[in-house]
Amino acid sequence: MRDRREDVPLLVQHFSVLFGQEMGMDPPAWTDPAMAVLQAYHFPGNIRELKNIVERALIESAGEEMEPEHLHLRTARTPPDNTAAAKGRRHPSDGVQGRPHRGRR
Asked: Could you give the count of Cα atoms lying within 13 Å of 42 in the half-sphere of its Cβ?
C-alpha cells in the first residue's frame, strides 16, 4: 500500500460498497481531506488495515459524509498528543531529583 498510494481511493470505494451492503446502507461519499489522510497514512498493516479502517469509519459515520475525524488515524501531520505533560499530568519521576536514593536494605 505504501508504494501504491494511487490505489487507495479505488480500494476505499470498494470496501465502502462492500461494507455498505453488509450494513444495509448506501456507501458514503468521502471528502477530499479524508481521502488525503488515507493516502498519507503509512499503513503498517497493509490492505487489511485499510479494510478495517474503512469498516470502522462506516460504522462511526452512520451514513454521513466521511471526514478525517471518522478515521482516527495518526499521520505525520497529526501526531498523537498523549504525553503526560499534554494531559496536564506529571511524570512519575517529577520531583524525584534531590531525594535520597533508597537501595536494598
From this structure: 7
CA distances from 10 to 7, 62, 76, 81, 93 (A): 5, 21, 23, 31, 49
Neighbours of 16 (CB within 10 A): 21
- Multiple choice CATH, 5-70, 1.10.8.60, 2.40.50.140, 1.10.10.10, 3.40.50.300: 1.10.8.60
pTM exceeds 0.70: no
pLDDT at 60 over 50: yes
